[in-house]
Amino acid sequence: MARATAAPIAASSGATARRPRSLWQEYLPAVAVFVAAIGLWEAFVFGFNIQFYLLPAPHVIVQTFRDNAAVLLEVGLYTFREALAGYFLGCGLGVMAAMASSRSPMFADLVLPYAIASASVPIIALAPLAIVWFGVAQGSKIAIVTLMTFFPTFIGTLRGLLSVPPQSLELMRSLAAGEGQTFAKLRLPASLPYMFNAFKVGTTLSMIGAVVSEFFGGPERSLGVYISTKAALFRTREAWAAILIACALGLSFYLVVVLVERLVMPWHASTRKT
Amino acid sequence: MAGLNGPIIDVHDVDKAFGRGAAVTHALERVSLAIQSGEFVSIIGPSGCGKSTLLRIVGDLIEPSGGAIHVKGKTPHQARLDRDYGIVFQTPVLYEWRTVLRNVELPLEVMGRPRAEWQGRAQAMLQLMGLGAFQHHYPWQLSGGMQQRVAIARALVFNPSILLMDEPFGALDELTRERLNLELLNIWSQTSATVLFVTHSISEAVFLSSRVMVMSPRPGRIERTVTIDLPRPRMAHTRATSRFFELVTRVREGLREDPAVAAGRDAVVEDA
Is the pLDDT of residue B88 over 70? Predict the structure, then answer.
């Protein structure tokens, strides 16, 4: 009889005791694909003798990047600051709006369809109007990013807050827990995975939103204007180098949020090392 | 009826209907039962007979359609507010973001008991359930049987006077279930809790209880009560005694027989 329960114990403690796969092992396939793709790109450009203004070879892009690092970084960080400001505004307002709506399920049912519909509106189309309302400087870009990140956060958080398992709620009820306790000890932690999904999507959305809204007008030293100007002058290697820094910033932003997610929810299935 | 010496749980003529009009289902019809303090009472019946509904009405998780219930002389609602109930559900219902220990501490935390009291009580409870070494594990790292033991520790950690158990071992394999039956009796003997236990396992009901109530479905009714006079403490070998088999057979007869026929019989031990 003891063995019947001992077996699963051994299995589960074995799983935690087993060394998790190292980062190297986990990302080796992805790195291999990356290296292969860059290699193919190089071979393609040289094999078919493609002009660099059409498609520069990777090593040319890297070299251009190195030569213009100071400018690119300045331009990139300018745009990243817009993305960041809009991201925090959008996510913050999204979470707060979701919390407010979740207090009344009837109200939540009322607004959720509209929120979902709004999320599918190409908000970027509002960029020219945002310039009229908030000026050509950072204000209009922050407004667009805020709007773009607001809806996914609002919908995700609201779904999380409303989809708490009924039995978990009954447990709180049986303990005669108050509304506030049920929220703090159950609804909020239960909806964290939903929130972080939205936060992760928001990182890439915010970079896209900031760069693309700069295409409609902005200061010279911003990523969107830089890319569109260089491309118009057929200086494609500079444009590619700028795309590279946009990728690097977006990816780092995403990874930071993933890291925060792991720190906040070490218990969640996505972070389990089994 | 509801005095100090009266029953701790007194259910009188309780009805429960779900839906309305033509689609109405009578889950319970004129169910009455009285449970004395310190008893271990099981309700057994086929699935859909309303036994869980009855338990949930006693625990104030749902409202009855009619009838009266007194728990310690109070309404179930007041009893719930007074934290008289510890509940164990069919699934463990552990919060996955809390470690085992923090899950067991949850009731004390909700009740605002002083923090110093928590750890001591919760840890002692886990020791008692043989889970001392797992207090800092997360629920997913435990087997189903261990998770349900955590749920029992959580239900008992604040010393509730009534323990409501809704098919707590239904999802476990037979060996684990028998083992947990023993552990439950052991831990129960160290408390003064009155237990209302819902199950569809005849041997489990007989092994654990002081009384087994047999329910029939649609509408849910208590057809008979079998008093279990097996001596305590009950051990693994209790299941091998002839008296155990006799009682199992009685409960089984109660479940099989047509209620109308069974009502006229006296072969079964009945006590009102």
Answer: yes
Q: How many residues does chain A have?
A: 274
Q: How far is B5 from chain A (nearest CA, A)?
A: 26
pLDDT per position as a tens digit, B104-115: 999 999 998 887
**pTM, rounded to two decimals:** 0.80
Are B161 and B8 spatial neighbours (Cβ–Cβ below 8 Å)? Answer: yes
Give the CA-trace dihedral at B3, B5, B8, B14, to 10 degrees: -50
Q: How far is A97 from chain B (nearest CA, A)?
A: 24
How far apart (Å, rounded) are the C-alpha atoms in residues B5 and B15? 26
**A192 and A225 belong to one structural domain:** yes
Number of domains in chain A: 2
Nearest to B95 among A4, A16, A168 (CB): A168
Domain count, chain B: 1
Interface of B with A in 179-238 (CB under 8 A): 179
**Residue B96 is nearest to which of A8, A12, A267, comparing CB atoms?**
A267
Contacts of B83 in chain A (CB under 8 A): 175-176
Which domain, by its residues, includes A187? 68-271
Residue A15 lies in a domain: no
